[in-house]
Amino acid sequence: MSTQPDVVVIGAGITGLHATQHALSLGLRVTQLESLIYGGLVTNVNALDGELSGAGVELAAGLMQKNRHAGATFASQAATKIQATANAWRVSTDNGKSIDSPCVIIASGARLKRLDVPGEAEFEENGVSHCADCDGPFYKGQDVVVIGGGDAAVQEAAVLAEFAHTVHLIHRGGQLRAKAHLIAQLNTHSNVQIHFHQHVQAISGSASVESVRLIDQHSGQARSLACTGVFPYIGLTPNSDFVPAELKRDAQSHVITDTTLQTNCPGIFAAGAVRAGFNGLLTDAVREGQTAALAARDWLQQRRSTT
pLDDT digit string (tens) for 131-168? Predict the structure, then answer.
């Protein structure tokens, strides 16, 4: 990359793509890093709920195409480290290269938490899945398990109910945490069974998933529930392993920012699911990407005026 970008955007989920789009509209040169899927977790959603409609993958693809036409540079690389140099931040990547830029927007998002139970890793992509829209048709007429009680778990259970014989929704608590209209939608499916106060202890099978072992949170009684698919949605872990050691994070490793999305490291901003205080709404992911881009532009202008 011969021309140093004004800003490096790390991550190309909805937040990162909107940060790049807005930064480009403000006249900034942008390099965007993403090693996995452009669009992030939203690409798993077949039908977006709320102000943004349509399939998640279509939304992400459209944004990426617009940004490319507007002059963004895309690099299919993962950020592995950010460190200060004399006049810039150096972002190292997993291909052994690095990019220097005075400004960085961390929009690396979050990843689904793992259950960390026996069988989860062994049956990944062979009965353990994280995308009901992608894999639901493979479980037509079968019994599946969804784990969790929030919006994602309830939405994915409703998707699977269109294909599966029975959807077992397993939740450790005594009531679902999802939005009321999502629960109402789930309740229209007669083939969904909700199991409260249950903890998944293990996933079992031979060549593929055959059952999950459940523990009742109150009685401690264990039982086996037959199924051929397991879909865990128990929360998110921020993708912040690569940030500078001096950059402040909370106890869950979310990046801490002020109201302008500036971190305690001058020139580094954070937005979206990687940030402490992000509420998870798609509309706020869009807004935070735009806010970070504007704050980055203002910071760059101030920096240039004093040098």
Answer: 888 899 999 999 999 999 999 899 999 999 999 999 99
pTM of the complete model: 0.81
Q: Which H or E run includes 218?
A: none
Burial of 289 per CB tally in 10 Å (0-12, 13-18, 19+): buried
* 255-280 pLDDT tens trace: 999 999 999 999 999 999 999 999 88
Length of the chain: 307
Residue 293: helix, strand or coil by DSSP? Answer: helix
Q: Nearest 5 degrees, angle CA 23-CA 46-CA 292? A: 20
Reading the block at residue 223, the tokens are: 């039982």
Query: Superfamily assignment of 7-112+236-305 in CATH?
Result: FAD/NAD(P)-binding domain (3.50.50.60)
36 burial type by CB count under 10 A (0-12 exposed, 13-18 middle, 19+ buried): middle
Whether CATH 3.40.50.1000 fits 132-232: no
